[in-house]
From TrEMBL:
<dbReference type="InterPro" id="IPR037171">
    <property type="entry name" value="NagB/RpiA_transferase-like"/>
</dbReference>
<keyword id="KW-0808">Transferase</keyword>
<dbReference type="GO" id="GO:0008260">
    <property type="term" value="F:succinyl-CoA:3-oxo-acid CoA-transferase activity"/>
</dbReference>
<dbReference type="InterPro" id="IPR012792">
    <property type="entry name" value="3-oxoacid_CoA-transf_A"/>
</dbReference>
<comment type="similarity">
    <text>Belongs to the 3-oxoacid CoA-transferase subunit A family.</text>
</comment>
<dbReference type="InterPro" id="IPR004163">
    <property type="entry name" value="CoA_transf_BS"/>
</dbReference>
<dbReference type="Pfam" id="PF01144">
    <property type="entry name" value="CoA_trans"/>
</dbReference>
<protein>
    <submittedName>
        <fullName>3-oxoacid CoA-transferase, A subunit</fullName>
        <ecNumber>2.8.3.5</ecNumber>
    </submittedName>
</protein>
<dbReference type="InterPro" id="IPR004165">
    <property type="entry name" value="CoA_trans_fam_I"/>
</dbReference>
Length: 233
């Protein structure tokens, strides 16, 4: 295989160079499309003082909630955190710093960071605590606030299929924040269900081109359901 092969054989290799105090951008929405094995490896490593950028913090005992158990996360930048009692406890006790960000703004912060755009103006959050202390400009008679983009030392992403060159396809709603997160890491690691040989993926179906991806690992996934809702029998 050529030097473009990005497949690694272990989680240790996948997260080599991850160290205390780094910023991690994590894909996923709730428990859908989260890089379960990579999160588990961070817990195993015991890396601390982390800033984690993610739509949410998982749930108690699963997803990013595993990292809260060992106080590995110092700061969360997220848009929704209502499914995690431990998160609430650490926030109220002052153990955890939290920067709540509107969901669309968070997605654009990742996308802009990956595109090399340092900041952008958005109307979302103007006149609320989200906009306090931020630069305001008026466009076409409407006020907008300046938001800084986000990049991370690592991006951890969950895909459906990838080839050995790092081209990735996501499955249905598991796309969520994963494509934006994948662009915004200095080192992007993608955990997938299946690795195929180059040329097996339809180029028109690829969501994340391999140019953004540094490492690919094949994982095993529990795919836990966050909120199970069924109709009466």
């Amino acid at each position: 295989m050529s030097g473009f092969d990005k497949v690694v054989g272990s989680y240790e290799e996948a997260l080599a160079e991850l160290s205390d105090g780094m910023t991690i951008i994590a894909g996923g929405f709730g428990l859908c499309g989260i890089p379960e094995g990579l999160i588990g490896q961070i817990k195993k490593m015991g890396t601390r003082g982390l800033t984690v950028v993610s739509n949410n913090a998982g749930v108690d005992g699963f997803g990013l909630g595993l990292l809260l158990e060992d106080r590995q996360i110092k700061k969360m930048i997220a848009s929704y955190v209502g499914e995690n009692a431990l998160f609430e406890q650490q926030l109220l006790s002052g153990e955890l710093e939290v920067e709540l960000t509107p969901q669309g703004t968070l997605a654009e912060k990742m996308r802009a960071g990956g595109a090399g755009i340092p900041a952008f103006f958005t109307a979302t959050g103007y006149g609320t605590p989200v906009g306090e202390g931020k630069e305001v400009r008026e466009f076409d008679g409407r006020p907008y606030i300046l938001e800084r983009s986000i990049t991370g030392d690592f991006a951890i992403v969950k895909g459906w299929k990838a080839d050995r060159y790092g081209n990735v396809i996501y499955r249905h709603t598991a796309q969520n924040f994963n494509p934006m997160a994948a662009t915004a890491g200095k080192i992007t690691v993608v955990e997938v269900e299946e690795i195929v040989e180059p040329g097996e993926l339809d180029p028109s179906q690829i969501h994340t081109p391999g140019i953004y991806v540094n490492r690919v690992i094949q994982g095993q996934f529990e795919k836990r359901i966050e909120q199970r809702t069924v109709r009466p029998a």
